[in-house]
């Protein structure tokens, strides 16, 4: 919530928890995010905004940044790979 407020000027609101009892279990080993919604934007529009680099070569990536696989390793892998590919493309274009 702090990162979104500081970087994108979005004030997120948590609507619910998928696993509300996990935090009460010893050794629960963390948590994962759920799909985020933005009033007035479609899901794809909002996630496109989330995936826009904050400035030159400064990307946010991870499980929370992919609409289709939010909260899963697939999202972390996909968004990390996309960010890396964008950076490589950017660097290659600079040398042309
Ligand atoms: C109990 C549980 C079960 C799950 N089961 C599945 C499953 O079956 N299938 C599946 O696909 N997904 C599952 N997930 C979700 C999956 O683990 C996550 O979606 C995935 O690990 C997220 O990867 P990530 O790289 O985005 O974030 P993370 O794996 O959380 O990586 C973030 C890293 O950043 C580090 N970090 C944090 N703050 C800082 C800092 N200030 N400075 C430096 N480093 C920092 C953390 O230590 C961490 O290593 C599960 C999650 C949990 C908690």
Give a short summary of the structure.
The protein is mainly alpha-helical.
Describe the structure.
The protein has about 100 residues and is mainly alpha-helical. The chain has one domain (about 1-10, about 30-95). Helices cover about 40% and strands about 0% of the residues. It is globular and about 55 Å long. It starts with a helix and ends with a helix. The mean pLDDT is about 90. Flavin-adenine dinucleotide binds near residues 29, 63, 71, 72 and 76.
Tell me, what's the shape?
A: globular
Outline the low-pLDDT stretches. none
Q: What structural category arises from helix and sheet content?
A: mainly alpha
Q: Quick one: how many beta strands?
A: 0
Ligand inventory = flavin-adenine dinucleotide
Q: What proportion strand?
A: under 5%
**End-to-end CA span:** 40 Å
Q: Could you give a short account of the major beta sheet?
A: none
Please estimate the helix content. Answer: 25-40%
Q: Output the number of helix runs.
A: 3
Residue-averaged pLDDT:
88
The topology string of helices and strands comes to HHH
Radius of gyration: 16 Å
The overall number of domains is: 1
Furnish the topology, listing elements before pairings:
Layout (H helix, E strand, L loop, with lengths): L1 H7 L34 H8 L22 H23 L1
The structure holds flavin-adenine dinucleotide (FAD).
The site of flavin-adenine dinucleotide (FAD) has 11 residues, from helix 3.
What keywords describe this structure?
single chain; 96 residues; mainly alpha; 3 helices; 40% helix; globular; binds flavin-adenine dinucleotide
């Amino acid at each position: 919530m702090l990162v979104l407020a500081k970087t994108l000027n979005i004030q997120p609101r948590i609507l619910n928890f998928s696993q509300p009892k996990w935090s009460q279990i010893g050794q629960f080993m963390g948590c994962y995010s759920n799909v985020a919604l933005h009033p007035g934007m479609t899901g794809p529009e909002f996630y496109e905004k989330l995936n826009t680099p904050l400035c030159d070569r400064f990307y946010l990536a991870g499980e929370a940044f992919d609409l289709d696989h939010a909260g899963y390793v697939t999202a972390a892998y996909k968004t990390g790979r996309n960010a890396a590919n964008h950076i490589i493309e950017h660097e290659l274009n600079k040398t042309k």
